[in-house]
Write a structure and sequence with these properties.
With 90 residues, the chain is mostly helical. Helices cover 73% and strands 0% of the residues. It contains three helices and no strands. The longest helix has 42 residues. The protein starts with a helix and ends with a helix.
């Protein structure tokens, strides 16, 4: 017991981490697919609203270019529809 007191501090034990197991081709492919699906979902949540907003702006710009509004266009379409219905009933 007295021999234990005279020794210096203990050296840290070498921690050996076991090598990580190599992934098989199938596991690598699954990881790539999962990452791609997540990336596509993120892009979808970002791009779809942007595309819809751009379409809305394009339609409004088209109406502004021709100097009309959607309500006027729908009224004219209703008039055409009624005229065609009258024509068919003859």
């Amino acid at each position: 017991m007295s021999g234990d007191l005279n020794e210096g501090p203990l050296a840290p034990a070498a921690t050996v981490t076991p090598p990580s197991p190599k992934l098989t081709r199938r596991e690598k492919r699954r990881q790539r697919r999962r990452r791609r699906k997540i990336g596509e979902e993120i892009l979808g949540w970002i791009l779809v609203p942007l595309i819809l907003l751009a379409g809305f702006w394009a339609i409004n710009a088209g109406f502004a270019f021709f100097g009309t509004t959607p309500s006027v266009v729908f009224d004219q379409l209703k008039q055409v529809k009624t005229a065609l219905e009258k024509r068919e009933s003859r």
